[in-house]
Amino acid sequence: MAKLDKKERNGDIQLKPLIYDLRLEKLQAWLEANGEKAFRAGQIFDWLYVKRVDSFEDMSNLSKALRDKLQASFHLAGLKEITRQESADGTIKILFSLHDGHAIETVVMRHNYGNSICVTTQVGCRIGCTFCASTLGGLKRNLTSGEIVSQVLMAQKVLDQEEQRASHIVVMGIGEPFENFEALLDFLYVVNHDKGLNIGQRHITVSTSGIVPKIYEWADDMNQFNLAISLHAPNTEIRSRLMPVNRRFPLSDLMDACRYYVNKTGRRITFEYGLFGGVNDQVEHAQELATLISGINCHINLIPVNYVPERDYVRTPRDDIFAFQRTLQKRGINATIRREHGSDIAAACGQLRAQHAKNQKESAEVPKVEQAEELTR
Predict the structure, then answer these.
(1) pLDDT 10s digits, 181-191
(2) CATH class of residue range 80-358
């Protein structure tokens, strides 16, 4: 990992912020407060997000004095790649290390409409969905907006090598985005800004497990970002079993918030529905789901479950998947089956991170004498 400047205060390491944490207007304000012209912010954004430089020294149209100020005040490297897995279908999953040693995942997916980057918003997750590896170690901390932006930049640099660009972003990685709301908004501003990565709002989807108050706030903001709800159940009993968050924000309240969002914005909502064998995947469940979402302008994204070794759920048989889809379509509901990405790698959310943590733990538990013997072989 690149060496990070630090200072000690009361025994804690205080790190300089990432330059990527700043929206354009915040960077303008910083420049003016430091005796520089505000228009330099646009130049800095160009170096960061268009030219994608790795050093402040590369910003050649800035004065040496300004480059020194930037170097003294901000970090430019937020992530270090630990490992990378590439699937036969072109999906790339990257495990990154943060400055404090925590690990997060980012995924690049190939579609016929372009390249999509799936980003993480938290180190771990406290929502506790029983089908997700991300929750196994609980929530460690929120990511800063700059750490989320850095994921897109690092993934884009991978695509740069192929002379391709990211056209879409999905905020569906590790963590609950709406529990890191302010950092989420700052991230979205930077990647959407025409001086930033210039990815259109309608090409960005944010997924939530159902943090009801934030859905209302999101609707009132009247943005054009896409909203997806991790629903995964047709009734409150099954949802509480799959997603403990349902006890905090009951299904009836969630559906009221979804109706408010659709009515307020005029935009369609996506319901993500994972199919778990013998749990929520029968025709009667599809009928119940159709009744639950009746009258809501929506799309159902059916997701055949990825096997997670730490969990006991099994995959729904192929015929049952199509029967579920047909049942919804007969009720006039737009339902599609998500194409699998990276089925031959650690594709499930949080799985690569969990595998890395397990390997670290096992390594730490090896007696020192055995480690020494290994080194001498």
Answers:
(1) 999 999 999 99
(2) alpha beta
